[in-house]
Amino acid sequence: MTGLTLTEVQTVPDARRRQRRGAGRPTWKTVLLSAVMFLIAFVFVFPYLEMVLTSFRTDKTLLEPTVFPTQWSFQAYTTFFQTALVGNLGISLLIAAGSTIVVFLVATPAAYFAARHSFRGRTAFLILVLVTQMVQPASMLIGIYEQYRALAGLDTVWALILVNAGFNMAFAVWILTAYFGSIPRELEEAAQVQGCSRIGAIWRVTLPLAGPGVVTALIFTFIAAWNEFLTALTLVSTQSKQPLTVAINGFLGAYDTDWQHLFAASAIATVPVIVLFAFIEGKVVGGLTAGSIK
Amino acid sequence: MTTTATTPPVQAMDAAAPIPRRRQRRGIRRFEPLIWVGPTILLIGFVVLWPIVTMIRTAFLKISPYGLTEGAAGWSNFTNLFAQPQLGQILLNTIVWVVAVVVITMLVSLGLAQLFNLRFPGRKLTRWALIAPWAASVLMTGIVFKWMLTEGSGLLLIIGHALGLVPDITHSSPLGAAATSMPWMIAVAVFVSVPFSTYAILAGLTGIPGDIYEAASVDGASRWRAYRTITLPLLRPAIVVASLINIMNVFNSFPIIWVMTQGGPNNSTATTTVFMYLLKGSDIGQSAALSIINFVIVIVLAGLFLKVSGWKTEEN
Questions:
Q1: Angle CA B304–B306–B309, to nearest 5
Q2: Phi, then psi, of B131 in degrees rounded to 5
Q3: Are residues A110 and A174 in the same domain?
Q4: Considering only CB atoms, which chain A residues are within 8 Å of B299?
Q5: Structural domain range at position A173
Q6: Could you tell me if A39 lies within 8 Å of chain B, comparing CB atoms?
Q7: Is pTM, for the whole model, over 0.90?
């Protein structure tokens, strides 16, 4: 069994046998399967293609019942930067970046310590983290609203940074605990022998080795904060202070919805996120389920 | 995926089992964990625990529509909430919403995971396509679907017309009535839930060694029988965890219903989460009461989650 690579293990046996029989010569069955799978894949990207297609329509062709616009226009993108949505995009960026930094600063030491040490209350701590992963802002929305109303946090970026950081930190704790746990402590000790301080050893040795885990945690937090809607809708009512999701929602209620700009903004907000997510795709399930599988 | 640094986290978690340290619990060292773990606990306390307390307090306060506190309310916010004539309908909607979305999602994902586990040209590319609805904002996905169902020009209506399913696209507005909007919203919720679930089941399938199937086929088991008696039982942990995560997400889900119908017409498509938000505008005390009920449901589900995944038996 030692010769088996991971990808071979992943496939079911009959596919493996077929592969052995004639590598490189696809049978009509694999071609058919491939066609079906591409069709399925198309279904999952189809709404986002339509999002982009609509952003290329003009006022005149907006409501034409055709699959493709009869007239293509990039106007929604060229004028996007003159709309108020640019400011909203900036606020989304601030919230997402801020939450990511807070999560990194807070979750990294906790995950490191939980991976390396047994301490009193470790289980209680990990359960507390797991609970924050399961309860979502939606289930305590009124409490959140009243809290930030009392703290003058309505219409502010810091409130949303904290909420997004707090509710998404669990993922980072799981994934970082796993990565730190897989790095032998001897490496750190060797660095310490050579004159590094303990923090220095963690910073120069452990953290870089946990790189993929750190990147996954940061990207995940960024995307979650970037996409968040309900808390922002509840806490921010001033239009110029809303993140993009809430501002776009505001578009919908307008008497004459400006669909091209709405979809241009959506496309600008969505496409990079899908690409970013593709980088961490293989590790996200682990982070989302690690706490519960333990 | 072969180096230690990229070991799947779940397996690595076991390797991270705590190793007792000699110097522990001596003098100042006793407080060392607080330095490392303290910031996390502070953040959780501020962001998660504080609003729970505020929510409970608010539920027992009388608050005017303008936000002024007018004294204690006792249980009146709860009794007023239960007196809402639409509450029964909303609870029913919530159950239909959660059960339909989660069951359909899991069935679709089981099938898709099986397909994506096969070997075919373009497997990597098609798997990437699958993540789009997972990565994208649920709100924006909901908006696109609403757009594609626009009366007279929606793309889904055009396609439906071409397939002979929609006789007249100019007089078809699927989101106008609960009987047609609810199935559409369920479909969108399934659409955004399937990618995570499929990936979770795929991760489970990866852990099943191929030899088991070879042994089964030697024993003359049919494929369907092998799936039922080998695959499904071995997938049980993945299915349970994915289902519970989905239940939690779908119960708390807001954007899809909000953009597609806003819970209307006349709250006929609202779930408890949407109704809670709507109540916030008119009566914040009642909204807090409903918030508490939602929260209790989530805590019960979370407890179930911990129990099923065996947290209680750990480290005793």
A1: 105
A2: -80, -10
A3: yes
A4: 135
A5: 79-293
A6: no
A7: no
Q: What are the pLDDT tens digits along chain A (294 aa)? A: 333 333 333 444 444 444 444 455 668 888 899 999 999 999 999 999 999 988 888 777 777 777 787 778 888 888 888 888 889 999 999 999 999 999 999 999 999 988 888 888 888 888 888 888 888 898 889 899 989 998 988 999 999 999 999 999 998 998 899 889 888 888 888 888 888 888 888 888 888 888 888 998 999 999 999 999 999 999 999 988 999 999 888 888 666 777 888 888 899 888 888 888 888 887 887 777 776 554
Which residue among A112, A182, A284 places its CB closest to the CB of B4?
Answer: A182
Question: Could you report the per-residue pLDDT of B6-33, keeping only the tens digit for each?
Answer: 334 444 444 444 545 444 455 667 778 8
Q: Are residues A142 and A241 in the same domain?
A: yes
Does A243 share its domain with A275? yes
Query: How close is the nearest chain A Cα to the Cα of B174, in Å?
Result: 16
Query: Cα dihedral sign for A260, A265, A268, A273?
Result: negative
Q: Find the closest chain A residue to B239 by CA distance.
A: A289
Q: Is residue A74 domain-resident? A: no
Residues A51 and A164 in one domain: no
ipTM beyond cut 0.90: no
- Cis (ω within 30 of 0) for the bond into A272? no
Of the candidates B122, B132, B288, the beta carbon closest to that of A38 is on B122
The token duo for B173 is 């507005």
CA-CA distance, B151 to B147, in Å (whole number)? Answer: 9
Residues of A in contact with B39 (CB under 8 A): 105-106, 109-110
Write out chain A residues lying below 8 Å of B9, CB-based: 174-175, 178-179, 213, 283, 286-287, 290
Q: A29-35 — which CB contacts under 8 Å span 24+ positions?
A: A30/B119, A30/B120, A30/B121, A31/B121, A33/B115, A33/B118, A33/B120, A34/B120, A34/B121, A34/B122
Contacts of A150 in chain B (CB under 8 A): 54
Is residue A34 located within the same domain as residue A180? no
A51 with A88, same domain: the answer is no
Q: Least CB-CB distance to B43: which of A13, A166, A288? A: A166
What token pair was written down for B42? 């502070």
Residues of B in contact with A143 (CB under 8 A): 50-56, 58, 288, 291
Q: Return the amino acid letter for B89.
A: Q
Domains observed in chain B: 87-269 (1.10.3720.10)
Domains in chain A, number: 2
In a domain, A130, yes or no: yes
Q: Do residues A18 and A160 both lie within one domain?
A: no
Confirm whether A245 is domain-assigned: yes
Q: Are residues A13 and A121 in the same domain?
A: no
| CB spacing of A178 vs B16 below 8 angstroms | yes
